[in-house]
């Protein structure tokens, strides 16, 4: 039975991913992984795009319209679909993920909600953080602890370091590039263990970052992100000559997991194809 790790690198645009993702770029070059250019949905801000990535729906359908709109998800999502199939979910992620998918009906409480194990929410096992400056290295350690301890079928890693550096120093800065390199170095170090443990690995971002340290609107720097897929279930190679919809991420993960997609998800239609 297939398992999936989804790495959602917050705030990392396509150009910076290409410049920093050494191992993943190598795997694409040697046709051991697939790479796509993703056209992100609008608005190009975090909370709405978390819901878009997890549900495969645009903002006008899922209803999470801004970062300030705090409520639980009301849609089928990758966590709920995995749980419905009787399988195990986990996440090392920013606190907004807890607010969306733990269905507690209120804001995240760092005193009570940082560690959530054996939960009855969509995320069965979670380690959450609320400080944007929480080190990515710790986040990857948190997620890998969940992998080794609970053996989830669907596991989310959600580091915030690139978004934080981008807001402070903007695209093109040494700090933003350094955050991207650090995140991809962590992935490179962990990827052999993930693959040995039977995981297909999907790496993408929610949105990009512009030269003003901003992301809200409709420009390529703000919207375009990379999608890397390390799996024997997909055709391998570089398929970045044209943009692919961000709405494809959720049905892709469902396909890799062997789950029926959500009833409102778009059909999976990746340019490079996915092996059935």
CATH architectural arrangement:
3-Layer(aba) Sandwich
> In total, how many domains does the architecture comprise?
1
The strand order across the widest sheet is 4-5-3-6-1-7-8-2-9
The chain-level structural class is alpha/beta
What would CATH call the class? Alpha Beta
Unreliable segments of 5+ consecutive residues: none
Number of helices in the DSSP assignment: 12
Query: How can the largest sheet be summarized?
Result: 9 strands, mixed
Rounded to an integer in angstroms, the radius of gyration calculated over CA atoms is: 17 Å
CATH superfamily caption: Alkaline Phosphatase, subunit A
What spatial form do the alpha-carbon principal axes imply?
A: globular
Termini separation comes to 14 Å
Q: Strand fraction band?
A: 15-25%
Mean pLDDT metric: 96
Total strand count, please? 9
Explain how this protein is built:
- 39% of the residues lie in helices and 19% in strands.
- With 276 residues, the chain is an alpha/beta fold.
- It has one domain (3-247): Alkaline Phosphatase, subunit A (3-Layer(aba) Sandwich).
- Strands 4-5-3-6-1-7-8-2-9 form a nine-stranded mixed sheet, with helices on both faces.
């Amino acid at each position: 039975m297939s398992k999936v790790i989804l790495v959602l690198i917050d705030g990392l645009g396509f150009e910076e991913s290409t410049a920093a993702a050494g191992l993943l770029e190598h795997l694409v070059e040697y046709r051991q992984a697939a790479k796509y250019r993703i056209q992100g949905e609008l608005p190009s801000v975090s909370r709405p795009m978390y819901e878009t990535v997890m549900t495969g729906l645009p903002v006008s359908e899922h209803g999470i319209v801004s970062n300030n709109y705090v409520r639980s998800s009301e849609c089928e999502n990758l966590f709920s679909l995995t749980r419905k199939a009787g399988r195990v979910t986990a996440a090392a992620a920013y606190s907004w993920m807890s607010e969306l998918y733990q269905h507690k009906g209120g804001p995240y409480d760092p005193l009570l909600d940082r560690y959530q194990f054996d939960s009855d929410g969509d995320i069965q096992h979670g380690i959450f953080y609320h400080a944007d400056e929480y080190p990515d290295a710790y986040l990857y350690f948190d997620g890998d602890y969940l992998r080794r301890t609970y053996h989830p079928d669907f596991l989310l890693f959600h580091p915030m370091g690139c978004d934080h550096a981008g807001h402070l120093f903007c695209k093109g800065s040494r700090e933003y590039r350094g955050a991207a390199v650090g995140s991809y170095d962590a992935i490179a170090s962990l990827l052999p263990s993930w693959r040995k443990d039977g995981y297909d690995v999907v790496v993408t971002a929610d949105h990009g970052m512009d030269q003003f340290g901003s992301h809200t609107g409709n420009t390529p720097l703000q919207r375009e992100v990379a999608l890397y897929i390390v799996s024997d279930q997909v055709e391998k190679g570089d398929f970045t000559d044209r943009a692919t919809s961000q709405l494809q991420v959720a049905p892709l993960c469902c396909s890799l997991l062997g789950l029926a997609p959500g009833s409102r998800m778009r059909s999976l239609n990746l340019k490079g194809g996915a092996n059935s």
